[in-house]
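Note to self: the last two entries modelled the partners one at a time, which told us nothing about the interface. This time every component goes in together.
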Amino acid sequence: MPPAPLPLAMLGQAFMGRAHSNAFRQVGPAFAPTRGLRLKTVAGRDAKALAAFAARYGFEGWTADWREVARDPEIELVDVATPNDLHREMSVTMLEAGKHVLCEKPLAGTLEDARAMRDAAAKSDAKTFVWFNYRRCPAIALARTLVREGRLGAIRHVRARYLQSWGGPETPLLWRFDRDRAGSGAHGDLNAHLVDLARFLTGEEVTRVHGAVAETFVKQRKDPATGKLGESTVDDCVLFLASFEGGATASFEATRLATGHHNGNVIELNGERGSVRFELEDMNVLWFFDGADAPREAGWRRVLATSPEHHPYVDAWWPDGHIIGYEHTFTNQVADVLRVLAGERPLQPLADFADAYETQRVLEAALISAREGCAVNLADVG
Amino acid sequence: MPPAPLPLAMLGQAFMGRAHSNAFRQVGPAFAPTRGLRLKTVAGRDAKALAAFAARYGFEGWTADWREVARDPEIELVDVATPNDLHREMSVTMLEAGKHVLCEKPLAGTLEDARAMRDAAAKSDAKTFVWFNYRRCPAIALARTLVREGRLGAIRHVRARYLQSWGGPETPLLWRFDRDRAGSGAHGDLNAHLVDLARFLTGEEVTRVHGAVAETFVKQRKDPATGKLGESTVDDCVLFLASFEGGATASFEATRLATGHHNGNVIELNGERGSVRFELEDMNVLWFFDGADAPREAGWRRVLATSPEHHPYVDAWWPDGHIIGYEHTFTNQVADVLRVLAGERPLQPLADFADAYETQRVLEAALISAREGCAVNLADVG
Amino acid sequence: MPPAPLPLAMLGQAFMGRAHSNAFRQVGPAFAPTRGLRLKTVAGRDAKALAAFAARYGFEGWTADWREVARDPEIELVDVATPNDLHREMSVTMLEAGKHVLCEKPLAGTLEDARAMRDAAAKSDAKTFVWFNYRRCPAIALARTLVREGRLGAIRHVRARYLQSWGGPETPLLWRFDRDRAGSGAHGDLNAHLVDLARFLTGEEVTRVHGAVAETFVKQRKDPATGKLGESTVDDCVLFLASFEGGATASFEATRLATGHHNGNVIELNGERGSVRFELEDMNVLWFFDGADAPREAGWRRVLATSPEHHPYVDAWWPDGHIIGYEHTFTNQVADVLRVLAGERPLQPLADFADAYETQRVLEAALISAREGCAVNLADVG
Amino acid sequence: MPPAPLPLAMLGQAFMGRAHSNAFRQVGPAFAPTRGLRLKTVAGRDAKALAAFAARYGFEGWTADWREVARDPEIELVDVATPNDLHREMSVTMLEAGKHVLCEKPLAGTLEDARAMRDAAAKSDAKTFVWFNYRRCPAIALARTLVREGRLGAIRHVRARYLQSWGGPETPLLWRFDRDRAGSGAHGDLNAHLVDLARFLTGEEVTRVHGAVAETFVKQRKDPATGKLGESTVDDCVLFLASFEGGATASFEATRLATGHHNGNVIELNGERGSVRFELEDMNVLWFFDGADAPREAGWRRVLATSPEHHPYVDAWWPDGHIIGYEHTFTNQVADVLRVLAGERPLQPLADFADAYETQRVLEAALISAREGCAVNLADVG
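The predicted structure of the combined assembly is written out below.
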């Protein structure tokens, strides 16, 4: 007889709540995990919308008081899918209640919050996870495998950029433009992904930020509640240069004002012996240059990472050549979370709070560097 | 109070059954249709596997006797997801029992079967649908809209090919390689999609097939049941040339032996005033050349058809730039089927049996042309 | 002391004359051939323009009577760069005068002319060459080498198309639209290149044309001399399907009305073990899929064929990664012609009249097939 | 009667000498300039090779003493195509002798040298030019035109990288790896192009370098003369972040160790209203995103800048769709130099010593920033 499914609660009901709910619903049919999920409770502030949300996505119940979740002895796993300023209080509360916590990225809006979360995780027996979902693109997993097998040799260059174009003056003053809620703008939202991916792929830590620049091009936006202009207090873009412990140089750029780019998360690694490049808008593909190929016929290979036999996670989905999309990275992550909670090995390592805290330190170093106009050693941060 | 969900049965439990089931499960949360689906019964031959399948994908019950479905007065919609030689008997039986039928493509393995199905549909009050799922890629829908708005002008060339590479000598003698089961090989499997897409995009019918060639490169394969070599009695590839009623030339090619191509369904239209190209392996993109652009700066545009505001079906999914995959074309189709059954307009036209019969006539004309070594007028077929 | 340079005459002074002249001027500095060229005479009908042309491109003299060239005992090599209907008379005259002949493609406007040229060449001790210049793209040469080394295995599919878009109704009634001058339209101009490349790359001959279609979309054009509308008597497009002697299927398409395509000569070969694709608009690149790569990491490789060390012809040009263009294919051809005339081996085989006649037979078979609506065996042509 | 051609001398006979000579030979037939060139003298150190070089590329004479050129009253224009440490002495000498000077980039190996050259130019009546040849790619010229016409609006991001992969440990200790000769490594060689292009395209100056990093990965190389290991004293890569006066952020990266990249000069501009991207390995193409397109159908356009009618410089070359290559950027530049010397307007602005000095100041600011670990205001440099 299969074990009773694991009862889960989700805090938050907006876009990320929708993406997470889909993953919670899909993991069963797709992966047939040892222990499945039971969608017990969704918590949010908009009581009126919650019942409809719960019905649509299959949650058994809902509450407008998220602390009820902490008091529910049945709940084992809590998904924190709220704005960044709420991550700390919610996560720490849940950890103290003995629940496993799966938190949206970035870990927190401030390094102080992130540190408190890391410390709470360290004191708890519960497990923590962060939604760095792009780690679970099969193409990214393949890239990491190639690096670990030495196929790239020593890494010399990391080149990462996340270009979007939805943040023009017509975009209203959402919580994402409020530093008190979001901590930062494109930086925490997009560079967080890039730094996590760069650390995940190289297996190395950043040692130094050489320089950085942050800009707010659109300084005022219309408040959707009041209709009046209010100040945008976050960056529209942040760029920074860094070095990894193995000596590789790295450049990072995140922006919401790169006209023409929808979701341009692109990361490339150049190693002594080979190179890889990943582009999120064509996320089933890994570009791979193998320096071991004969020079006459060497070239960047367009590897379609869609083989159920040869690429991780794909056997839960469709035959070779039948691509997956954005949402599958979330479902793949839930499958790995369930593996860990069942005492099994995940297909690819998951970021816990301690790991995500290292990413947060790099983000912080970049902000300091931009503010101070100087290089920052990571040893001096956090 | 919402209407009671529509009870559905599915015949078949293999790969297509899995893709269809996923769509049946997903349509509710994604589209919130006026009238949802109730997954009542799955029917198949492997009784042992059926219970597990039903549990995994959320069917209430199962049966090893598909005729039970016809006798179940509750069932309103039947999905026929079995090999091609069974489409006719199952569909006709279900239509005669007053059920709506949703049938896997190609409509049938032979033109005779297809005609019988078309005739049965004409005599029935029930509605029929065929799984030409690629019509419901947002990029394909955009292409059709551009054609209908006259942005391409008169169409002069259609260029369609569907290249796969899984049919080498090591692939066993599946039902797909048995003419009695499948009717044809790459032709019915892949050219069926191309002909449907070409007719859907141009809004025109084929008038003549100018020539064709069919080849079976791998003549013997190992029977997975007996382990012995058996004869492959279907084509590995079929190519043919045609004309559309508006004068456009068209070339079609389907093959399972195009080394390096996983799922290379590519279709391009050149019109007097513009051109479009679609590639299934990067299916969120439509390439569009607008002849109205100034010559200095005209060029093929890579249009990412992922905008919830601007592209059909996308508002059921994710924000702009967050791509969808193969499975979403099925869910989009179920959403349109449910719209039709609720008396609403589908976002894009659906193929019924009469429509799919026209595609089947073109496929038949190509086979005749290949066999006879002569051009075939469509007026003389079927 | 180096041998005295080889005296050459060129017949024709239009676009092709310009491209050829450039190659004649460039071959010396680029390749330092054993025996260089002396640009002795250019012949054309427009006496007024000839002096300026000769001065600009470095010809010593000019004549408005091309037969003078045949009578000039010094001239060793004659380039025939005139419209197709003149190829035969000029070439045969020059061969009979003992000159080597380098003729523009297609070999002739009609099969009869082509046969007479082949026969004249067979009777002569002089050497013949045809300007199938794309053979001498380094990327094409690499593709041929891979095929010959068995890296693709048996070829199963050839897919060739040449798409241009300059032949709209606004284009005047040039000689290219007059069947008496040109023989055919897109067919002789563009399919000639494709058939030559397909034969060159596979090393195989076409055995059968399965079907074909030719269309003239723009039936009337303005005569640039009279300003009146006249009839276009050539095809705007020709498509045909064929088989090669090794069993490969092949599809060919040539059109001047493919909106959005400037010079879309694309040819792809799929073999049992690998595939290659070449695109003229990005002609320094060969796409190569090596089926011997591990499935996990196999993919189409973008091979930049620009290495002086590893790719033929490149050491005459620039360092790796510094691309060459259209004109270099002509210069590379002249270098090989000079090698042959100096008794050396060309880097890649050159087409002579006998070879080009085989291409012409395939073109003729396609025209017959289009006209008769039936398959044509090559054994029955020419 | 046309004016007597302009007598030119070239100092240097290595790779750049070959590329320049080709341009000097080609400019006449291609552009038919008002006043053509006379290749009078080539000067170099290797007397033995000079005679052959002169013969091959059409120079009338040669000298092993470059100062003779200064003393030759006929010479009007001197091309300085020598290593960076010689640019100053040669250029200043020639300017003082009243010759126009065309100097290889970067202007000099050090800012001090560059300043002296700028000052000498300011004092002279002669004209100066620098070989920033990529300005004269038609695609780059189109990009600049679009920016100037306001099609991109205010520029927000510049993203420039120049990735090569020829500088591994097996590459010998050429002068390019000697700081005394070259001034810097990838920085002066590659970032010089990027900074010039960024300034040329935006029409703006850099105001601040925010941070930088320079690395020498390969610290020792074999001296080709002695066979012994010697120290490489230049950077293998330099990355830096900057701002332009209009507020745009900019990132620059130059490296000789980016495995898989041959000549990856890529520059992208994102503006409020549109974006452009150029890639040197496919240099006939400009990617253009026009924000004025309807959102439904907006996309990056692949503009093939090969139209003789619509793109600058192309009417000197081939019909639309027939691409040009690396060498044509040099010939296009010589055409513009000759226009200026004939009192005509160049098709696109040329960099003179004063202009190139501004690029040199940016390069210097980046080096200071890398060394000091701090931001550098351009106002404080040079």
